TrEMBL record:
PANTHER family: FAMILY PROTEIN, PUTATIVE (AFU_ORTHOLOGUE AFUA_1G10790)-RELATED, PEPTIDE N-GLYCANASE PNGASE -RELATED. GO terms for cellular component: cytosol; nucleus. It holds the Pfam family Glyco_hydro_92N. This is Glycosyl hydrolase family 92 domain-containing protein. One of its GO terms (biological process) is carbohydrate metabolic process. PROSITE patterns: PROKAR_LIPOPROTEIN. The keyword Signal applies. Residues 289-776 form the Glycosyl hydrolase family domain. InterPro entries: 6-hairpin_glycosidase_sf (IPR008928), GH-type_carb-bd (IPR014718), GH92_a_mannosidase_put (IPR005887), GH92_N (IPR041371), Glyco_hydro_92 (IPR012939), PNGase (IPR050883). Residues 778-797 are annotated as: Disordered. The lineage of its organism: Eukaryota, Fungi, Dikarya, Ascomycota, Pezizomycotina. Keywords: Signal. It comes from Penicillium steckii.
Length: 843
């Protein structure tokens, strides 16, 4: 494997721990796992996986429900339990993923007759005792109304279930069935199972469909059982009937479109302690591999040791971060640490489990979807778990190497659907500018992102970008484009234009750092394409009343003529029933409105601020977006808008805005998430917002807000150095009933020197810098000066003029920040801001 160390300045020391320079703000160590509640987001559409797993684990054990919102398996909403299965995704939309080969227990069959047990999923389901549910890292526990209690834990590829049956005089002969089905009932032919008569071991496999993508996948299993009761009998079931004579079953797809119920069962003589253990290994390769995983990982059904191993793994993962507990309620800590926990449930590490190609590179799956995770989840892991983030990046590059394209969404070994931009570009570049290069083949990485920018895939519903011919010709994605080279849903022309612009900017940064100068100029120029959809005189009305704002993005035909989309269509307050998803023909913005997308220019904010009328008007618009609920924090495009006040020199307003969302919209309860967690995207939003440093993803830029804690310490696993954020006069501003502080930044020091910029770069973390904040009750002038605003790829009015572009009109005389003074610094990070991008297109 090629290791191409580039120009990045960060010094890597592997994962060895360096001696920490003594910080006066060291936070006491404490057990963090007490503050992790995996049940957060397990109801009301959070769709979080609430069960037992290791960090990035493949085996994910939980009770599955029949809830309409059972994407994560278990839903804490009182719906019925259909089984206990070993594979899940977390927080996703789409149809429910995985949930394959569920087990289901009976304390005994009616009249001790096999056919007295109910086998099919639809009829066997059963309610659970609501107050019996317990969950903690690596552990889940629930009791069915039948009185059967099921505890579960997991190793990397294996689930361990401990079934407690009522024991005593009248106890019967417990039965456990294994069903050849999945959560969404997608089994294709042929499923099969074989049961070993003497040991009761069940092996087999079946083919299923991914939940938001194309293709299919095969999953294999190996289930073993242990009990103090003797093995009584075993066999198979088909539909409602079972037999202990038959031990092999191959089952066809379906009767009438619904997969025919079928599987195996095992029965025990009454165990003296009432316990039957079931160990289920899973593998995408073979049932032999599933068995060898299970035997290696949990050789003797050791429940406590397996659980302890999970606790140890999670404890180790949580080690880099500690916040001060002084003056905060435990619910604040639980909100924070549980958010961090969820960033490491997905993606899943399927290294050694990929049947699609042979490689020595890591293989990660359940990138579900990168449109969600590029915004803060993977950037958070880049700080907090860089070794894993590096493996994810290597996996993305290796996937491109073997399948031809970087994924945009990937689940269950299949391609997921693209939602807009080629978002892996943002993720690769984020890792690149932050110096992750341990065995990353960045030349291959560059080739992969460049392919996204240059070649249109035949099926751009699943990868890459559509409309590239127009993109290169007219520099925007036209509405009703004529695109015969590749195929995808011809919608989202505005959001795709904005996202492709940002993708191209990301690629430009990488090209710049690699001294690919002409590429860098090409992509910088293309990154200005968002301007071509800005219609200066476009207005926006709410209920017939002019909002007073002028200038919005609009759809545009190839010939340059404007189309029309109401800027509020598909906003959170649009009650017209419009849908802006993948398929509809009306929506030129994906899952959101023009109002919200007007802020998605993360690389060229200075120009955007100018185009929206200068800082004061920009701030008014951003306030309007939030105050009238046009945006909804339960979907990822809202994330950055919370912090974009920074670009208008109003960092205090970002701090104030964060506090309107946390904890009101993100609270540590099962119903506490405002939307799908999306594989931990929401978790990372909570974590990074609360630590007071939110990323502009794809850039070495973190926007500073007041943290919810007196101190935050983050130790870089790469350098062993500890970065600190500390509030000196915390006690004075912690009056909000200990729920996270009040006040705004009055002054700051970085490593002891006065610091007025309202942002930091990634060196803060790798070099273990120390940011000390002093608060005041009101907004101050800290971080407001033009030179204190975050960097922006900007070109001056005179440059625009020189290129025949005219000057961007401003309604305000506020000074607009242009280039940042410290060029040397950005160059080191692969960023370049004194380049005068050219752009030939009129607008
Ligand atoms: C659970 O299943 C039982 C028995 O099938 C049924 O009576 C009950 O309505 C179900 N509960 C829910 C919430 O679906
Ligand atoms: C399914 O199994 C049956 C019986 O073994 C066999 O005839 C058939 O070809 C199999 N179909 C597929 C798609 O594997
Ligand atoms: C992923 O799994 C492989 C194989 O088990 C292991 O070598 C690697 O360290 C794992 N990666 C992470 C980030 O846990
Ligand atoms: C890029 O060029 C500069 C100046 O010539 C040089 O110092 C640097 O090492 C080059 N970087 C790469 C990655 O080739
Ligand atoms: C617009 O009118 C609807 C229906 O009368 C109302 O529910 C909604 O609150 C109004 N929206 C605004 C922003 O005034
Ligand atoms: C451009 O195309 C649109 C859509 O086909 C059409 O309505 C409009 O008249 C055309 N404009 C010109 C100037 O040809
Ligand atoms: C926005 O939503 C919040 C919470 O649902 C509500 O309290 C507030 O009144 C809404 N604001 C407007 C302007 O509708
Ligand atoms: C703090 O809690 C008290 C009592 O519950 C309440 O009256 C007060 O309004 C709260 N203060 C704030 C700032 O939330």
């Amino acid at each position: 494997m090629l290791s191409s160390r580039l120009i990045l300045s960060v010094v890597f020391t592997g994962s060895c721990v360096l001696v920490d320079a003594a910080s006066p703000y060291v936070v006491d160590d404490y057990d963090v796992l007490q503050y992790i509640n995996p049940l957060i987001g397990s109801s009301d559409g959070g769709n979080v996986f609430a069960g037992a797993t290791l960090p990035y684990g493949m085996a994910k054990a939980v009770a599955d429900t029949d809830s309409e919102s059972n994407q994560g398996g278990f839903t804490y909403d009182g719906s019925n339990i259909t089984g206990f299965s070993s594979m899940h995704d977390s927080g996703t939309g789409g149809s429910p993923s995985l949930g394959n080969f569920p087990l289901f227990p009976y304390a005994s069959c009616k009249n001790d007759d096999l056919n007295g047990c109910v086998f099919p999923k639809k009829s066997r389901k059963q309610a659970y005792k609501s107050d019996s549910v317990k969950s903690s890292p690596g552990y889940f526990d629930i009791e069915l109304v039948s009185g059967v209690r099921v505890e579960m834990t997991a190793s990397h590829h294996t689930s361990l279930f401990r079934f407690h049956f009522p024991s005593g005089e009248e106890s019967g002969s417990p039965l456990i069935l294994l069903d050849l089905s999945d959560l969404s009932d997608t089994r294709q032919d042929n499923g099969s199972i074989s049961i070993d008569r003497s040991s009761g071991r069940m092996t087999g496999n079946a083919k299923f469909l991914p939940s938001f993508g194309s293709g299919s996948y095969n999953l294999h299993f190996c289930a073993d059982f242990s009990s103090s009761g003797w093995l009584r009998d075993s066999g198979i079931f088909v539909n409602t009937r079972a037999s202990n004579d038959v031990h092999d079953l191959t089952i066809s797809r379906s009767i009438n479109g619904y997969p025919l119920p079928g599987g195996g069962f095992i029965r025990f003589q009454p165990p003296s302690d009432g316990i039957v253990n079931a160990r289920v290994g899973v593998s995408f390769i073979s049932s032999e591999q599933a068995c060898s995983h299970a035997e290696a990982e949990i050789p003797n059904f050791e429940f406590e040791a397996t659980r302890q191993n999970a606790v140890d793994k999670w404890t180790e993962k949580m080690e880099p971060i500690r916040v001060s507990r002084e003056g905060v309620k435990s619910s604040v800590l639980t909100n924070f640490y549980s958010g961090i926990y969820r960033t490491m449930v997905n993606p899943q590490n399927y290294t050694g489990e990929n049947p699609l190609w042979t490689s020595t590179e890591p293989y990660f799956d359940s990138f579900y979807c990168l449109w969600d995770s590029f915004r803060s989840q993977i950037p958070f892991l880049t700080i907090f778990d860089p070794n894993s983030a590096t493996q994810m990046v290597r996996s993305l590059i290796d996937t491109q190497r073997h399948l031809g394209w970087l994924p945009d969404c990937r689940m269950s070994l299949c391609k997921g659907f693209t939602q807009g931009g080629s978002n892996a570009d943002n993720i690769l570049v984020d890792a690149f500018v932050k110096g992750l290069d341990d065995e990353v083949d960045w030349q291959a990485g560059y080739a992969a992102v460049q392919k996204d920018a240059e070649e249109e895939p035949f099926d751009w519903s699943s990868e890459g970008r559509g409309g590239l011919k127009s993109w290169k010709e007219v520099n925007y994605i036209p509405v009703e484009d004529f695109d015969y080279e590749g195929f995808g849903t011809m919608t989202r022309s505005i959001s795709r234009t904005l996202e492709y612009s940002y993708n191209d900017y990301a690629i430009a940064q990488m090209a710049r750092a690699m001294n690919k100068t002409s590429d860098a100029e090409r992509y910088e120029k293309r990154s200005l394409a968002w301007r071509n959809l800005f219609k200066k005189d476009q207005t926006s009305f709410i209920n017939g009343t002019d909002t007073g704002f002028k200038g919005f993005f609009q759809p545009r035909y190839y010939n340059g003529t404007w189309g029309h989309q109401d800027p509020l269509t598909c906003s959170n307050i649009d009650n017209s029933g419009s849908i802006c998803s993948l398929q509809n023909t009306a929506g030129e913005t994906f899952e959101s409105s023009i109002w919200e997308y007007q802020f998605f220019v993360p690389h060229d904010m200075a120009t955007l601020v100018k185009m929206l009328g200068g800082p004061n008007n920009f701030v008014k618009r951003l306030d309007y977006l939030h105050d009238t609920n046009i945006t909804y924090i339960g979907n990822e495009p809202a994330f950055l808008t919370v912090f974009q006040y920074h670009y208008a020199g109003r960092p205090a307003k970002s701090t104030a805005r964060v506090r309107t969302y946390i904890p009101d919209y993100f609270s540590p309860t099962p119903a506490g998430l405002p939307g799908n967690d999306d594989s931990g995207a929401m978790g990372s939003f909570v974590a990074m917002s609360m630590m007071g440093l939110f990323p502009n993803p794809g850039q070495s830029v973190y926007l500073i807000t007041v943290p919810f804690f007196k101190s935050v310490n983050i130790k870089s696993p790469l350098t062993g150095k500890t970065a600190t954020v500390h509030v000196t006069n915390w006690d004075q501003f912690n009056s909000l009933n200990n729920t996270g502080g009040t006040g705004f930044i009055k002054s700051a020091t970085l490593n002891g020197k006065p610091y007025t910029r309202n942002w930091l770069d990634h060196d803060f973390f790798t070099e273990g810098q120390e940011l000390v904040l002093t608060l005041s009750g009101k907004e101050s002038s800290w971080g407001t000066a033009p030179e204190d605003r975050p960097p922006s790829l900007s070109i001056s009015s005179s440059d625009l003029e020189a290129r025949g572009w005219g000057v961007i009109e401003e309604e305000s005389s506020d000074h607009i920040p242009l280039l940042h003074s410290d060029q040397r610094h950005f160059a080191r990070h692969g960023m370049h801001f004194d380049h005068h991008a050219r752009f030939d297109k009129k607008w």
